[in-house]
Design a protein that fits this description.
The structure holds two protein chains of two kinds. In chain A, strands 2, 4, 5, 6, 9, 10 and 11 form a seven-stranded mixed β-sheet that branches. In chain A, strands 1-3-8-7 form a four-stranded antiparallel β-sheet, with no helix packed on it. The relative contact order of chain A is 0.34. Chain A is mostly beta strands. Chain A is globular and about 35 Å long. Helices cover 0% and strands 50% of the residues of chain A. Chain B is mainly β. In chain B, strands 2, 5, 6, 10, 11 and 12 form a six-stranded mixed β-sheet that branches. The termini of chain B are far apart. Classes of the chains: A mainly beta, B mainly beta.
Chain lengths: 114, 114
């Protein structure tokens, strides 16, 4: 069964550094998402992406964040200048048809900002 | 803003006990509802979903959930749990007219004692 994959599984960085989290969505999917879960808190929506542009974003997704689909398979989340409070598990998800369609989640990248 | 509440944070059951996990949401319009499960060390997987029709939906592994519109609830049930059901369970909501983002509850950590 096809799966969403994410790399790396764990990323440690210094405050102020840029990080890029990578995701490979399921190949025929059209909608892509990033969520995050700070330790002990809820899974929170960050952004959705469709047709090569952001379709929705949350208040969390400020100017420090950006997403890109640099080629036909990867979907990346960039944090320009990391803060301590960016430490979280970041989940990528994808689906074929949006709304009612099941979102398939990757295993997550644990980001630790020191 | 919409929110999703899961009132049970931790549940401990013995094998063969019945399970009911609560999920309530605050949104007045039509919603799509999901239950996801995260087994230890694995990614979020869909258990079941509801978007229209019969309010009693059946999912994988013997789970079911009932949508009660008047109570804004979508409780998850299983008549007889197994040790392998030990996991964290997340309720999520997608309002029909609010794009594709999922709003998650805080999760319920279920431990089943053999």
């Amino acid at each position: 069964e096809p799966e969403v994959t994410q790399t790396p599984s764990h990323q440690v960085t210094q405050m102020g550094q840029e990080v890029i989290l990578r995701c490979v969505p399921i190949s025929n999917h059209l909608y892509f998402y990033w969520y995050r879960q700070i330790l002990g808190q809820k899974v929170e929506f960050l952004v959705s992406f469709y047709n090569n542009e952001i379709s929705e974003k949350s208040e969390i997704f400020d100017d420090q964040f950006s997403v890109e689909r640099p080629d036909g398979s990867n979907f990346t989340l960039k944090i320009r200048s990391t803060k301590l409070e960016d430490s979280a598990m970041y989940f990528c998800a994808s689906n074929l048809a949006g709304g009612t369609d099941t979102q398939y989640f990757g295993p997550g990248t644990r980001l630790t900002v020191l | 803003a919409q929110s999703v509440s899961q009132h049970n944070h931790h549940v401990i059951l013995s094998e063969a006990a019945s399970l009911e996990l609560g999920c309530n949401y605050s949104y007045g319009g039509t919603v799509n509802l999901f239950w996801y499960v995260q087994y230890p060390g694995q990614h979020l997987q869909l258990l079941l979903k509801y978007f229209s029709g019969d309010p009693l939906v059946k999912g994988i592994k013997g789970f079911e959930a009932e949508f009660i519109k008047s109570k804004f609830s979508f409780n998850l049930r299983k008549p007889s749990v197994q040790w392998s059901d030990t996991a964290e369970y997340f309720c999520a909501v997608n309002p029909n007219n609010a794009g594709n983002m999922l709003t998650f509850g805080g999760g319920t950590r279920l431990m089943v004692k053999p």
